Amino acid sequence: MIQTVSDKKVTSRRTEILAGVSTFLATMYIIVVNPAILSQAGLPFSGVLTATVLLSFFCSLMMGLYARNPIVVAPGMGLNAFFTFSAVKGMGIAPTVALGAVFWAGILFLILSLANIRTAIVRAIPKPLRYAISAGIGLFITLIGFENARFIVANPATLVSIASLSDPIILTFILGLLLTAVLVARRITGAIIAGITLTTLAAVPIGRLWGDASAVTFGQKTLVNFQGLFAAPDFSLIGRLDLLGALQWSLWPVIFAFAFTDLFDSLSTFVGVAEAADLYDETGEPRNVKQSLLTDAVATTLAGFLGTSPGTAYIESAVGIEQGGRTGLTAIVAGLLFLPFLFLSPLLSVIPAIATAPALVLVGSFMMRPVTKINWGELDEAIPAFLALVLIPFSYSITQGIIWGFLSWTVVKVAVGKFREVPVGLWVVDVFCVVSLVAGH
User: E strand or H helix at 414, and its extent?
Assistant: First the structure.
């Protein structure tokens, strides 16, 4: 049996292993989706896939062994889109130069982490905003789950709408969601893994009978179709970054954009996951936050060297935490499960997106619990918390939610004469927020 430091709950190695498997199943989509996005920037798909697996393996192990937190680290969604569509395609930066910018952003992270600046920033976040960020991330995870299942789709008239219930994919997702919800509600051990397995099995006939590739190929869209069982790793991108080219004065905004976007993503993930799972130390702060943030910094630096977009802590780690994961063993197990896909990446096609979607939706509901701790009667706290909560899913960006939550907290508190309720560290965060907004535009 293992006893955690923060919540004094007793867990077991079996529980931690199951949690690690659950987290891996919820995050492994990045192995295919990340290279699919970065390949549009001109990087070889196979090279990015290898870099993605190596980064996820090494940095998740570091998170488990060094930071002792049950959080997976992998190339960040959103960050890979910024790399491809803003830096490379939008600004015309060469892919190798963009990798160099990722590396220097990681160095900036390391400096901030070693100087305890990032830790101080975490401690400066007011608790109502922590609660709101956790709930906002939960809504964001839920939206991702609905989107992956194609249950929520784009609509030119209403922005979004529910897809037709006549679609066999949608019916399979609903079946998987209800099955998983029942298993979770009955507190069945390994409920989330069982739900993913059952939904995968239910999805097989769709591909057979209706010919829908998305039911038998991993991913929201059929981005790539592997053949066979084995694929050799491609190490061609390792060390291909252009360090000197990335130091041009015109590229500093790109480095800052990578740095501050990853900063807010990781901060919000650590705070949100800690709040949802009660992973706090004796002082009431997120457990081992300095070590966790340092791991995140190493992930970004290593990403540039390996040949992928910045690495960051993954909000989908909440899946394993809800499964009972409380220690670094969860991250270690998840990290180890990435490694075989250096050679077995075709096996990812076995589990479709609609199989992991129910787990993501339900995890979102679990992460709504902290909302009850917000004092909704104190409007100078409730309004900033509300903005942070809703803007995370509405803007499809954790970064935007946390930025506007921080800035609105400061403005409202000062305006109502509660200047002293704005911590000094939060003023530093506000500066980063403004810089991030400017650099992002």
Answer: helix 398-415
- The answer to whether position 309 is within a domain reads yes
What are the tokens at 30? 């990045």
What tokens appear for 392 in the block? 């995370």
DSSP at 375: -
Per the structure, how many domains does the chain have?
A: 1
What are residue 406's DSSP bridge partners? Answer: none
290 falls within a domain: yes
Q: Considering the domain boundaries, does residue 236 fall inside one?
A: no
Whether the predicted pLDDT of 12 surpasses 80: yes
Mind listing the pLDDT tens digit for each residue in 231-273? 788 899 999 999 999 998 878 878 877 887 777 777 777 877 7
Distance CA 360, CA 344 (A): 24
- In this structure, is residue 314 part of a structural domain? yes
The range of the structural domain enclosing residue 400 comes to 2-219+251-439
- Secondary structure (DSSP) of 205-217: HHHHHH--GGGTS
d(CA 28, CA 349): 11
pLDDT tens digits, residue range 289-302?
788 888 999 999 99
Distance between CA 34 and CA 50 in Å, rounded? 11
For 239, the 3-state DSSP assignment is: coil
Report the C-alpha gap between 96 and 149 in whole angstroms.
34
